[in-house]
Task: inverse folding
């Protein structure tokens, strides 16, 4: 199968969106590209390398990033709208974008101001893609320092209780 993603616009020639409406227009462009063969790609079950490259090339991964580093400087309400637009073309890729933005923003939950600034600057400048998902029904991992060893164990999941 030849993906329509091989025929994407040269995003480098397009100006970086600055307003919410410009970001939504970019998301609609990506939605259209994804929708063209979403069912076929889903049936193939392949790793979405081209789709992640599209999110990076289009700049959507920088939506929450600092403007001074090439990001969108947008807030979560805009991010939610952008995620919904992308998901309208391909639900799985919309979910990946949503998790990326969550993990991009997670430095704000646990980092020092210096760490937050560095992570956001580097991730935006280099268009990093953060992957990962959590499921609140999964068992928690418990980590214990036992001197010469660090021991990882799991608790029962919600479904096991």
Result:
């Amino acid at each position: 199968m030849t993906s329509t993603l091989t025929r994407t616009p040269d995003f480098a020639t397009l100006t970086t969106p600055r307003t919410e409406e410009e970001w939504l227009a970019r998301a609609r462009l990506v939605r259209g590209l994804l929708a063209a063969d979403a069912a076929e790609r889903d049936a193939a079950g392949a790793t979405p390398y081209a789709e992640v490259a599209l999110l990076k090339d289009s700049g959507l991964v920088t939506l929450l990033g600092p403007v001074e580093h090439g990001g969108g400087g947008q807030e979560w309400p805009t991010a939610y709208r952008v995620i919904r637009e992308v998901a309208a073309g391909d639900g799985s890729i919309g979910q990946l974008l949503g998790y990326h933005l969550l993990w991009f923003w997670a430095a704000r939950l646990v980092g020092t101001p210096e760490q937050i600034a560095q992570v956001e600057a580097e991730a935006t400048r280099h268009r990093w893609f953060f992957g990962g998902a959590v499921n609140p029904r999964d068992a928690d991992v418990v980590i214990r320092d036992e001197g010469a060893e660090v021991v990882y164990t799991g608790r029962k999941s919600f479904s096991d209780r």
Observations:
- The longest strand covers residues 141-145.
